[in-house]
Structure formats: structure tokens, C-alpha cells
Amino acid sequence: MSRDRSRAGGSTSSSKLTRKGAQTRERIVVAAAELMFEHGVSGTTLEHVRDAAAVSSSQIYHYFADKDALIRAVIAYQSDTVVGGQEPMFARLDTIEGFRAWRDFLVAHQRRLECRGGCPIGSLGSELAETNPVARTDVAAALLRWESGVRSGLEAMAASGRLTENADPDRLATTTLAALQGALLLTQMQRDTTPLEVALDTIIDHIASLTPASL
């Protein structure tokens, strides 16, 4: 089997696929992502993915050299779904109201999930960090993308004078993501959105305290 694979998970380059091929590959990745979210990476086999995606084993190996390649594709998919899905909201994080709307979206999403599963990206990272260094790097990049989205809003606040001069968008963005990830874990463990609400309200109140008194 050729080792000339794309960087996004070691799979056949999606740019070289037919439309049908791209749809099949996507179906495999989505099925794998759902299974890994529900059962973890170790609890998901390629046979499970084959059955869930309604494809053959040969189709899976046509698009993915091995399970590690599929894992990397799942990480990329979760980055695009979880973080990419929030990017329109990141554009509105230039006001406290925008932050509160983002907070409400995250809390409502967890309620819809009944607080199950935690963060799809963070869960992958916690399972893979010490056993799969390549996957760990991919997860770190996905989390950095998330942090960068928050940072862009804070930088816009600072540029427009909505943050005091001593406010540090870099530190605030890192703190926000760290609080969010920890809160999502507690929310998952407790099956209760209270930790998520408290963590986000606290960090948003702190950001609000750094706005000029005239605003």
C-alpha cells in the first residue's frame, strides 16, 4: 500500500477523491468520531467503524492505512466540527455580550447532550496524549485553534478600547480555555452543567472587570 498519504490523518488525499469517494471517506470518519466519542478510542475497533459506516474493510483501508490514520482524521473532523462550528461566535467575542452569548450556547449544548461525553477534543487528548505523540500534537493544534478564536475576540476588544491597557488577551484566552476544559470534565462527571456555568461566568465577570469604567 502506498505511503503517500495526506497530512490529515495519513489517508488518501481528499483532493484526489471522486465525489463518491469523498462521501464514503466522510461517512467513515463521522462514524468513527461518533463511536470514539461514545466508547473511547480503545473501545472502538475498525470492525465497529466498518459496521457503523456500512462499508467494507477494504474501503476503510483504501482511505486509511491503519487505525492511527483514522484517529488523526477524527481529530481533524472534531476540530472542524467543534471549533469550526463556533467560529461565527468567535467573531462576536469583541464584547461582553458576545462572551455571554457564547457561554449560553456552550451550556445549552451540554444540556442537549445530558452532560455526556465531555469535550470531544479534550477526551481524545486525554486518552491519546501518553500513547500516541502524533495524535497528541494534532489535539494540541485543535485546542490552540480554539484558544486562538477566543484570543481574536479579546484582541478586538483591546483594539477598540473595550479592555483596559493592563489586560493581557493572551493570558485571558489561555485561562478561558483552561477553565472551559476543566469545567467540561466536571460537567461530564457530575452530569450537571453547574460547573460549566460557574467557570464561564467567573471568567467572563473577570473580563468584564477589565473593561474601562466609562463603558
Explain this structure to me?
With 215 residues, the protein is an all-alpha fold. The chain folds into two domains: 14-74, Homeodomain-like (Arc Repressor Mutant, subunit A); 79-209, Tetracycline Repressor, domain 2 (Orthogonal Bundle), CATH 1.10.357. The chain has ten helices and no strands. The protein has helices at residues 19-39, 46-53, 57-63, 67-83, 87-90, 96-112, 120-128, 133-159, 169-190, 194-209. α1 crosses α2, α1 packs across α4 (67-83) and α7 packs across α8 (133-159).
Give the rounded overall mean pLDDT: 92
* Poorly predicted residue ranges: 1-10
CATH architecture of the largest domain: Orthogonal Bundle
Biggest sheet descriptor = none
In short:
The chain is mostly helical. It has helices at 19-39, 46-53, 57-63, 67-83, 87-90, 96-112, 120-128, 133-159, 169-190, 194-209.
Topology (elements, then pairings):
Elements: H1 19-39, H2 46-53, H3 57-63, H4 67-83, H5 87-90, H6 96-112, H7 120-128, H8 133-159, H9 169-190, H10 194-209
Helix pairs in contact: 1-2, 1-4, 4-8, 6-10, 7-8, 8-9, 9-10
Task: List key phrases describing it.
Tetracycline Repressor, domain 2, single chain, 2 domains, mainly alpha, Arc Repressor Mutant, subunit A, 215 residues, 10 helices
